[in-house]
Amino acid sequence: MKKLESSLVNMMVVLTGVAVVMGGILAYVNHLTEGPINEQKTKALADGIKTVMVCNDLVVAKTDTVKQNDAKGKELTYIIYQIQDAQKKDLGAAVESTTMGFGGDLKILVGFDPEGKILGYTLLEQSETPGLGAKADKWFQKGEKGDIIGKDPKESLTVSKDGGQVDAITASTITSRAFLLAVNNAYNAYKTTPSADAETGATEQNKEE
Asked: Whole-model pTM?
């Protein structure tokens, strides 16, 4: 009996030791990868801003965080990057907006000109069905079936199935509705903020020829 108890104690000690060592290794690996991951996210955002603003030579003159409640009372957060060109002329803003898609969070970045017309967009995060909802990255681009580029969301954009003017992704109406809601919300958040002040400190993005 004593031998059995001793074996159990030894087993617990070994398992505890292994758990501590593995925990330390995981923490160390996480520490090593955290920096590169953040750098990749920063670069992806910088590239995304250039894409949606259709401009390489730009600066982020001001960053605002706006919180608004949706129709169900849920608080949503929007990050608004006020954009200027090299001569400090207001180009509009790039807005991060997130809604719930068919498979999970659908996070987009939308570019608006000073009047509020859509310049471009890119998906930052999505969990939609491959071959269906995941087509949102291309479906609403200029020249595509659901083209929203150049549209003004002053009157909310909706899919044609709901009486709107935008063709939904084939067999992915839920994703299409979620995407357009994210765009509409981004527009509403943008319109609550003042234009970038030329006197504010500007963070220059990497320029590309």
From this structure: 0.76
Is-contact 192 66, C-beta < 8 A?
A: yes
Closest CA to 59 of 200, 207, 202: 202
pLDDT, tens only, 1-53: 555 556 766 777 677 767 777 777 776 666 666 666 667 677 878 899 999 99
Distance CA 171, CA 133 (A): 8
Dihedral angle computed from the Cα positions of residues 93, 94, 98 and 99, in that order, rounded to the nearest 10 degrees: 70
Q: Report the alpha-carbon distance of residue 193 to residue 200 in Å, rounded.
A: 15
Q: Are 147 and 140 in contact (CB under 8 A)?
A: yes
Q: What share of the chain is helix, strand, coil (3-state, %, to 5)?
A: 40, 25, 35
Rounded alpha-carbon distances, angstroms, from residue 82 to 14, 89, 162: 56, 11, 32
